[in-house]
Specification:
Layout lengths: L14 E3 L8 E6 L2 E10 L6 H17 L4 E11 L6 H17 L3 E9 L4 E10 L15 E4 L5 H9 L5 H11 L4 H5 L6 E6 L4 H8 L7 E4 L8 H8 L5 H10 L3 E2 L6 H7 L8 E5 L4 H10 L6 E7 L6 E3 L1
Parallel strand pairs: 4-5, 9-13, 10-13
Antiparallel strand pairs: 1-2, 2-3, 3-6, 4-6, 7-11, 7-12, 8-11, 9-12
The chain binds cobalt (II) ion (3 copies).
């Protein structure tokens, strides 16, 4: 984050993951066998139904715990609410949705804070736990590893369509289900496979977060654009020009990292950079175990799970689209 530039960031022997590597969450070792993971996220409603919004916001906030390989333990509500102009029942339903998701994750709601604001916002700060040796940063992949994604992309486009009243109820239900699906399922499998890195796909889009996995490293990442699972309606809507503003910023920010982007359909490029809300995990796994991992994920109901790329010896820190 730019605003942190020039600040004297903390260094400590027990701070296992800090701010430097734009990872999903901070990790601090309490004991040789125990570390805490901390993260916070909140945003304005992405769907009209407050209960669904609460579920999505909570799944999204807890996702950064899962992206480190951990499990959430406690959560606190963060609420900005226009109490003079919005009915309090909207907030109650949102908090009920969030609490149900926290319970589903096996975590506990332990507190929170609310302020009056002109625009409604909701999210959580979440604390999780993990064994220090099992922390999965976004940087651990090695050449030869394959990259697996666990949810389809395109939710940013559909959320934009929802705001413009261009999404029907069926599509809203489908995308709500995807965004409120916890990323706990893949993490339950992590002990059974040799996983080398993990992060979740959120605001910077698939390629933005994929870039974080090779940034500053002496290897490249080949992404197969044709293998990336995409919500089919998102493709249609993007062809009609329904693309969120964040997409352009995401593309600009990472354009120097890409090789072969000029040969990819422009609409597909938009989707590969589509900012996701509560997106899936991208997981680096040893080559011979990738198919087995994908099969397990599909068995668990994550039907779109796919192998979408491979880490290779190649131009340092570049993403090759082919
Ligand atoms: Co994240
Ligand atoms: Co986050
Ligand atoms: Co991570």
């Amino acid at each position: 984050m730019k605003a942190l530039c020039g600040l004297d960031l903390p260094v400590h022997a027990d701070l296992l993951v800090g701010l430097e590597t734009s990872d999903d969450a901070g990790v601090y070792r309490l004991r040789d066998d125990l570390a805490i993971i901390q993260t916070v996220d909140f945003f304005t409603p992405v769907v009209d139904d407050p209960y669904s919004f609460g579920q999505i916001a909570a799944a999204n906030a807890m996702s950064d715990i899962y992206a480190m390989g951990g499990r959430p333990l406690t959560a606190m509500n963060i609420i900005c609410f226009p109490v003079k102009t919005m009915d309090i029942s909207v907030l109650q339903e949102t908090l009920r949705g969030g609490l149900d998701k926290i319970k589903e994750a096996g975590a506990l709601l332990v507190g929170g804070h609310s302020v009056e604001d002109s625009e409604f916002k909701y999210g959580l700060s979440v604390t999780g736990i993990i064994h220090p040796d099992k922390v999965l940063t976004n940087r651990g992949a090695k050449p030869g590893d394959l990259l697996v994604i666990t949810k389809p992309i395109g939710t940013g486009i559909i959320n934009t369509a929802i705001k413009g009243n261009m999404a029907d109820d069926k599509l809203i239900r489908e995308v709500t289900r995807m965004m409120s699906t916890l990323n706990s399922g893949p993490v339950e499998e992590f002990d059974n496979f040799r996983i080398s890195a993990c992060t979740d796909v959120t605001g910077f889009g698939l390629l933005g977060h994929a870039c974080e996995m090779i940034d500053g490293q002496d290897m490249a990442l080949r992404i197969y654009p044709g293998k990336v699972p995409i919500i089919s309606e998102a493709l249609k809507l993007a062809r009609m020009g329904i693309v969120p503003g964040g997409t352009f910023r995401n593309r600009e920010f990472r354009k120097e990292y890409l090789i072969g982007a000029d040969k990819i359909d422009n609409v597909l490029m938009d989707i590969l950079f589509d900012p996701q809300t509560s997106g899936g995990l991208i997981i680096a796994v040893k080559r011979d175990e990738a198919k087995g991992l994908v099969s397990r994920l599909i068995e668990k109901g994550l039907a779109a799970s796919s192998i979408i790329g491979e880490f290779i010896e190649g131009p340092a820190g570049k993403i090759i689209l082919k």
